[in-house]
Amino acid sequence: MSLMTTDINSTLINIASITAMLASMLAGFTTAIASKKVRIKGSRHKAGNEIDYEFDTRLVDVKVELDRQCSILRWQNLAATSLTFSQYIIGGVLTTSFIQDTLSSNIVGLLGLLVLISSLIHQHFRPDLKARLAKEQVVKLRSLLRDVEDNIFAIRNDAQCELFIKDIRSHVSSALNEIENTELQQFSKKDAEQCA
User: Whole-model pTM?
Assistant: First the structure.
């Protein structure tokens, strides 16, 4: 019975180790991809002199940025969850004393290396902070989107509001600039912390 229990424990340990390795690799991959997500500007050509309120008020740019921030949020949440999951599994395998006795020193060393790699990925990319920042930006962008859509609705129902487009466009530009500056400040702060 003891030999069968040892085989089952060994199999479970191997499955947990492989699961943790895959979760760590997934986290590293998703964090790297999400960090490279670039800003794409919305562009569209107007035909003749027709008024395109969505384009003129930069509503197209707001929608593009909202999609980008939602994508960052999704990928960074996946990365943060994968890192946490893999660290808990590996930590559980390594800290349980009876399991450590059944592991070879090579596997213990490999698991220790995975914990180190997961910690380095977490410290370098900070997917948890990036996800939180993206969530804040998504909330701001959704609010901005609603404001612009309300203003466009008001303009379409009142022909006297044509000059109002310039004000909306300026408001949207300021909000998008604030979002970009917030990201820049966050990354500069993270770089400064890493240098210290």
Answer: 0.70
Burial of 79 (0-12, 13-18, 19+ CB in 10 A): buried
pLDDT tens-digit profile of 59-118? 999 999 999 999 999 988 888 888 888 888 777 777 775 555 666 777 777 777 888 888
Structural tokens at position 96 = 């349980």
The angle, 0 to 180 degrees and rounded to 10, between the axes of the packed helices 2-35 and 105-125 is: 20
Enter the tokens of residue 49: 């002199």
Secondary structure, 3-state, the chain: CHHHHHHHHHHHHHHHHHHHHHHHHHHHHHHHHHHCCCCCCCCCCCCCCCCCHHHHCCHHHHHHHHHHHHHHHHHHHHHHHHHHHHHHHHHHHHHCHHHHHHCCHHHHHHHHHHHHHHHHHHHHHCHHHHHHHHHHHHHHHHHHHHHHHHHHHHHHCCHHHCCHHHHHHHHHHHHHHHHHHHHHHHHHHHHHHHHC
| CB-facing half-sphere around the CA of 70: CA atoms within 13 A | 8
**Residue type, position 70, single letter:** C
Which pair of structure tokens corresponds to residue 62?
A: 């707001």
Rg of the chain over all Cα atoms, to the nearest angstrom: 25
